[in-house]
Amino acid sequence: MKFIVSSAALYSHLQAVSRVINSKNALPILDCFLFQLQQGILSVTVSDSETTMQTSIPVIESVTEGKIAITAKTLLDALKEIPEQPLTFSVDSATLEVTVTYQNGQYSLMGQNGDEYPQATALSAEAVKFTMPVDALLTGINRTVYATADDELRPVMNGIYFDITQEDITMVASDGHKLVRCQVLDAKGSDRAAFILPKKPANLLKNILPKEQGEVTIAFDERNAVFELGNYHMICRLIEGRYPNYNSVIPKDNPFKVTVDRASLIGALRRVAIFSSQASSLVKLNIKPGSINISAQDIDFSTSAEESLPCQYSDSEMSIGFKSTFLIDILSNISSAEVILELADPSRAGLIVPVEQEEGEKLLTLLMPMMLND
């Protein structure tokens, strides 16, 4: 097996898929990239036994076809130091020795038999299939993945729920304290269907989608999902189980609506939260017509802070407490210049929605309050 490939093209593709590889693998061969050369196309496969990703790289020249597994860390570290130039890979099929020749020298390393690399499972014949724009999927993942849980007792909460209807595709994530619902209006399915995408493959997609354009084809059955992109192909195990009815927890009638500048509110929260209790990160929002007062205190250390911001609000005065880290997370993942806080009373969940929705999406976030002592 012998081929010539651009060092920069190879390195960027290897770097993108290398995130699949776990730091510790049960099978030693899963520490490797699987190189397969067929008809002038080099495909590189990586897997952690639950998620498998493949990318294709056109080669400049190829002599003989074949497959070889090469240790990922060694190859990545070596390629990182080489400026853009053609690399010649020569593989001795008898000894599995790999020689990489470049302008001023060469690397030699031992490969492993590519036939021993685990094969990804195929989807069943009943698999559901749909397409959505690459940027819509990327936006949906960016809007929701931060709100997924790390809950061993409720694994269904540890991923993004895709709710597919004939009108739109809704992506939902919640950790029990905060919830994000992002309706993608530019995509729809042919029938009602749903699946839960785990956090790791969601983050892998978040890294490779900015390099892609056009449409992504998604197919899934009860156990696995396949994402087909121009240069990448990913198959991953899904989280099995029933996702909670997310619409039932979203309050329908929140009479108090506060419009405030998003960036100013984030800045004030970050400054004031420094003085909140380290155990709770509680900040108190005291809302009056025309202004919002943000305060925090740590009784143990006798520290406190408060700051006022102008806002659009004309109802009666009210106070509500939130965990500052969660509120900052939510506000940081909204792109609108202004947000609306929709509140009912200090014990009910508050909704945070952008004043201006992005084209093709409808975003809603929910945050559970914290009890105020006063």
Question: How would you describe what is shown here?
Answer:
The protein is α+β, with helices and mostly antiparallel strands. The protein has three domains: 2-116, DNA Polymerase III, subunit A, domain 2 (DNA Polymerase III, Chain A, domain 2); 128-248, DNA Polymerase III, Chain A, domain 2 (Roll), CATH 3.10.150.10; 250-367, DNA Polymerase III, Chain A, domain 2 (Roll), CATH 3.10.150.10. The protein is 17% helix and 42% strand. The chain contains six helices and 26 strands. A hairpin with a 4-residue loop joins strand 12 and strand 13 (169-174).
Please give the structural blueprint.
Elements: E1 2-6, H1 7-18, E2 32-38, E3 41-47, E4 51-58, E5 61-64, E6 66-71, H2 72-80, E7 86-91, E8 97-102, E9 105-110, E10 112-113, E11 128-133, H3 134-144, E12 159-164, E13 169-174, E14 178-184, E15 193-198, H4 199-208, E16 215-220, E17 224-228, E18 232-237, E19 256-261, H5 262-273, E20 282-288, E21 291-298, E22 303-310, E23 318-323, H6 324-332, E24 338-343, E25 350-354, E26 361-367
Antiparallel strand pairs: 1-5, 1-7, 2-3, 2-6, 3-4, 4-18, 6-10, 7-8, 8-9, 11-16, 12-13, 12-15, 13-14, 14-26, 16-17, 17-18, 19-24, 20-21, 20-23, 21-22, 24-25, 25-26
Helix pairs in contact: 1-2, 5-6
